[in-house]
Amino acid sequence: MADFNQFGSAKPGNLGGPGNSQHCSQSEAMLSDALDGTLSATDQATFDLHLVGCPSCAAMLADARILAGIDMDGATVALIPERGLSRPFLFLGKQENYTPGSGIIGSPDGKHVKGSVITWERDWRLLTGWKRWLVVAGAKHASFTDLGLLADQAGIDIGAGLRGERGLEVTRGYVRAFFDEHLRGTPQARLDRASPQFPEVMFCSP
Fold it and tell me: How many distinct structural domains can be found in the chain?
């Protein structure tokens, strides 16, 4: 079977690992369990978390059953077709890497270095439906997973400005809100404006 990238374009290679249909099905089942197992087969959602090795699970253009998607703190590799992607999509990442306009920096040798944020800026204009771009102050990549919490417990400094437990609270709060709104039809105020419950989360308008 073809390997799919975040936006559904088939690409060769890695057919037995993350990105193949079996791996994606397992990921979707885990997500459904996380949402209390209440989603129907039609209400599939994609959840692109770079760290866990499934950057290829979001075949949103290839499969109309996939109704909403998240890219969490990872550069996007696939190119969205010019016709765009009209289903709901959320970018959620650390402030230091994914603040709009920060992707081109001057290097010590005088050359310019492009950052991951440029891929989000490229894709943003092609997301034609509901979309949000949120950045988390003080977060590191591990902050969006339980690795940040484990690092705190082990006394390992990962350079994060927020505790691992807090990182998980932010992640759960916004991922759950996104899927509650777009799969369960329950409006979520925190997706429309800054939330006093999560002051470290900022809205971006590239």
Answer: 1
Q: Dmax over Cα atoms in the chain, in whole Å?
A: 54
Using CB atoms within 10 Å of the CB of residue 71, give its burial: 0 to 12 exposed, 13 to 18 middle, 19+ buried. Answer: buried
CATH number at residue 179: 3.40.50.1820
The answer to whether residue 39 scores a pLDDT higher than 60 is no
User: How many other C-beta atoms are found inside a 10 Å radius of the C-beta of residue 143?
Assistant: 26
Kindly report, residue by residue over 171-197, the tens digit of the pLDDT.
999 999 999 999 999 999 999 999 999
* Separation between Cα atoms, residue 15 and residue 26, nearest integer Å: 15
H/E run at residue 171: helix 164-183
> Residue 78's Cα: distance from chain center in Å?
14
